[in-house]
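Q: What does the assembled structure look like for these inputs?
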Amino acid sequence: MKRSIVCRCEDISEEDVIQAIEKGYTDIEELRKKLRIGMGPCQGRVCIQLVARILEKKTGKKISKIPLPTVRPPLVPVSLGTLASEKNEK
Amino acid sequence: MKSKADVVIIGGGVNGCSLAYRLAKKGLDVIVVEKKYLTSGATGACGAGIRQQWSTRENTQLAIQSVKIFERLSSELGQDIEFRQGGYLIAVHDEKEMKQAEKNVAMQRSLGLKVDILKPEEITGVVPILDVQGMRAIGATFCPTDGHANPFKTTFAYADAARKLGAEINTHTVVTNVKTAKKAIRAVVTDQGTIQTDVVVNAAGIDSKTIAEMVQVKLPLTPFRKEILATERLQPLFEAMVISFKDGIYFSQQKEGQIVGGIPIPEEKGEYKTMPTFAFLSHMAQTLTRYAPVLKHVNVLRHWTGFYDVTLDARPILGEVKEVKGFIQCSGFSGHGFMISPMVSFLLTELIAEQKTSEDLESLNLGRFKGKNIEKELSVVG
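A:
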């Protein structure tokens, strides 16, 4: 079966997103928590715009009115070793 | 939105949604109002752990009974909440901590909980990636039936089940006032309309204080900002949650493979600021790699902020307040709201649907802060 991938990190397809919206998850943060979109290494750079567009199509809510999920640092993956190298451990 | 209900629950977190489900199951007409989206508060930011190892008998009992409900919750709700029992390993660092641990374990065992005291060399048998010297442990306690569940999926599953039973759940609905007459609840006013009701459940997390002020009730709650980080996904490395009361750290590997954990923020103050800090990231990375050096190669993907609504004894405020008839508290969870939510909704359902009260519920009433002897829960982490 053909699947259009929306979120590469978590392997979520367009159909998965549509299904969740139809079940009543119409807030982008709820979709994120239901499907884990935006929780992978790209932190939503690939999927969130696509999901917002699907949400616009399904709910009729203008894309400009759909709030983006909270941006969470660090913006790119950083290793624990690097983060631990700051010298303030007693 | 309906204009009348038996019960209005303010707050769409795990406690609000599980209570909506249980009350709807009893045939009550329930409306949930949530300011943002479901799990937008402490539930959505929490560490997902479910622990039974506490220092007070009451909390241990609540937790043991909650785990029994968690064990059958996926089948009861018809959705997988990803409940897994990988245990909690609590590091013990010195003689003083060991004395307290022995006391706790004796009490926990007397309640029928299976919990063991581990020797240092037994620690890596449970969590192989730990460095016992690095974590400066002289032992640990371990309860194999502690575990995790997915807080989002749990809340959504409760909400879906509640809706099927006729409950109405309104997200993006802000409560602007709670009306009383003759010291009894009359109505809840929201930006989407007014709901006539005799019973209001205040399950609004750190906003519970504001809600209570609408009916001139003062709640002794302080919001404490907490931070958590999540790493990239890894192959399964360990099943237990690792925690330390001394270092304040907790971390575990979730079902998808990411390691999620937190630690108190250096120079923490009770306040509402929500931006994550570098001080946390650095302190957490240092402590985590001291506990498990192999993790230094693992990438952090994100970290976020959540709030504990902390009471004086680190125990929740539950039940009806004396001052206002029909005003039921369901807050002050002090960081443990998710793990005891099954029993919280069970006890409050008994109270609201059957006017039944219990010793557990009485001991958690707001009125207890007027007494002199409140026993503080010592086993607090994060």
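Residues 5-84 of chain A form a domain with the Arc Repressor Mutant, subunit A fold (CATH 1.10.10.1100).
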